[in-house]
Structure formats: C-alpha cells, structure tokens
Design a protein that fits this description.
Keywords: ATP-binding, Kinase, Nucleotide-binding, Phosphoprotein, Transferase, Two-component regulatory system. Helices cover about 60% and strands about 15% of the residues. By secondary structure, the protein is α+β, with helices and mostly antiparallel strands. It has a domain of about 160 residues: Histidine kinase-like ATPase, C-terminal domain (Heat Shock Protein 90). Strands 1-5-6-4-3-2 form a 6-stranded mixed sheet. Strand 3 and strand 4 form a beta hairpin. The longest helix is centred in the N-terminal third of the chain and has 58 residues. The radius of gyration is 24 Å and the shape is elongated.
C-alpha cells in the first residue's frame, strides 16, 4: 500500500477549462497560477523567517536574562546555606542547577536553530557544517553526500536558505520522532531540478502521522519548495525487506524535496512580484 504524501506546488486545472480554452490560453492560465503560488509561498517563507528572528531575539534578550538572574539567585542560596543545613538542601540545589543548565543549553540551541545560517561558504558548506553539528549533538550516525554541480555555487541566498531549512527541519524531525540510529542527507541534481533527499532507519510514518494535516513544520517545508516550483514528498520506506530477511525488518522515513533550477536561479521573489503587478 502506498503510504506516501505528495505536496504539489501547482493548482489543479479543471478539465472543463482545459477543453474549453485554446491550449495557449490554458498554458497562460497555468503559468499565472504557478506564479501566484510562488508569490504566496515566498511571502509565507519571508513571514516565517521574520517570526524566527523575532522569537530568537525574545529568547536571547528575555528568557536569557531571566535564566542568568536565576543562576545568580541559586548561587546566592548556595553561598548563604548554613554549614549545618540538611544534606537534602544541597541535593535540591544540585538538581536545580542541573535543570537550569539543561534549560540554558536548550535555549542556546533554539536561538541557533532560529537564526539564519551563514551561507558565505555556499549551501554545500553550510549543510556540511550543520550535519556535523547535528551528529555530535544527537549521537546519530549522519552522512551528507552532494552531487558535484557548479550551479550549487551560484544559488541566490533565498534559494540556498530554502534548501537549508528543509534539510534542517527534516533532520530535526528524525531526532525528535524517528527513534532512528542513522540519518542520511543527499543532494542530487538533474537538468531541471535539484532534489534534496533525507532518510532514516527509524520507526517510519505512523498511521496518525500520515493522516495529520496542517503540521507547522510540514507546511513550512511545503512553502519553501513551492516558492521555487518544487514538490515535497514524504513516504515510509522499509529497510532490509527482501525475501531473505526476517519479518522484523525496520522501517524508515524518506523525504524528497524538489526545487526547480529555473526558479532558483531566476530573479528574487520580490522582483517577480513587481513583474506580476505591472
């Protein structure tokens, strides 16, 4: 049974319209619909990035300051604690400090995730560094393989950021939900499309996950693909399911995000919007 989820980038053209209008008119209508989808998707992505920057500032300036104040308060309590205080007091302070350390680490990681990455070294360098950090942080065996394609060095910042964010969300989902031991990231390139492939050897897609709609992370990945004439496909895959394997073959998840080269290498979305409005 097919358990894949395909998120298309273009709207459906009713058969009646396709037969009633001349081919050239239908093609123009389809091009306008696709351009509109790209425009709206680009606006959604820009709004998401603005929200990420705002949340990162609030975490750093607001939550970070409160955590620092809490650390000083706990240090003061530890200093003022009488020498003959029950040992339970020192144990409770140790637990509070460990919890505070964990919250501070999580807060710093969240701020780092929310900030846009440095893309000075290009998308390949950014993904290579991030996957290395991801592997060290999660203890997952993680590999990154990328096709040798000179077009990767010419990607505009908005296109490179879209690819990075989709890879980041897919890998984070593996760490949070997949119960996997390994994760693999791969970039394949063809004449018309760049395909980002993320796979794992975890528990795969559950029935609940397949039926769920409106998931924030998934909608963000969808919008980033749609902004560049792309598609997002998420499917469950079976690992080691050949006839000679045991019946306890593990399952995994496969994410395939496709981006059109023409859309990525074209003008920035803002220029496209001005052209549409003229």
């Amino acid at each position: 049974m097919d358990t894949s989820t395909v998120v298309p980038f273009s709207a459906h053209i009713p058969p009646s319209l396709a037969h009633a209008a001349p081919p050239s008119a239908a093609e123009r209508e389809l091009a306008q619909l696709r351009a509109r989808v790209r425009q709206l998707s680009a606006e959604l992505v820009q709004a998401q990035e603005a929200a990420c920057r705002h949340v990162a500032r609030e975490l750093h300036d607001g939550v970070g300051a409160e955590l620092t104040a809490t650390r000083f308060a706990l240090a003061g309590v530890e200093t003022w604690l009488p020498a003959d205080a029950p040992p339970q007091c020192a144990a409770a302070l140790a637990v509070a400090n460990r919890s505070l350390d964990a919250v501070c680490t999580a807060s710093r990681q969240a701020v780092a995730e929310l900030h846009a990455p440095s893309l000075e070294a290009g998308i390949v360098g950014a993904l290579a560094q991030w996957t290395g950090d991801f592997a060290a942080r999660t203890n997952l065996r993680t590999s990154f393989v990328c096709a040798a394609d000179v077009r990767l060095t010419r990607l505009p910042t908005d296109a490179a950021l879209a690819i990075f964010r989709v890879a980041q969300e897919a890998l984070n989902n593996i760490a949070k939900h997949a119960r996997a031991e390994s994760a693999d990231l791969r970039i394949e390139t063809g004449r018309r499309h760049l395909t980002l492939i993320v796979s794992d050897d975890g528990i795969g897609l559950t029935r609940t996950a397949r039926s769920r709609r409106g998931h924030f992370g998934l909608s963000g990945m969808q919008a980033r693909c749609a902004a560049f004439d792309g598609t997002l496909r998420i499917s469950a895959r079976r690992i080691g399911s050949g006839r000679g394997d045991s019946g306890t073959a593990s399952r995994g998840t496969l994410v395939q995000a496709r981006f059109a080269w023409d859309a990525m290498l074209a003008s920035a979305p803002g220029a496209e919007r001005r052209a549409l409005q003229s």
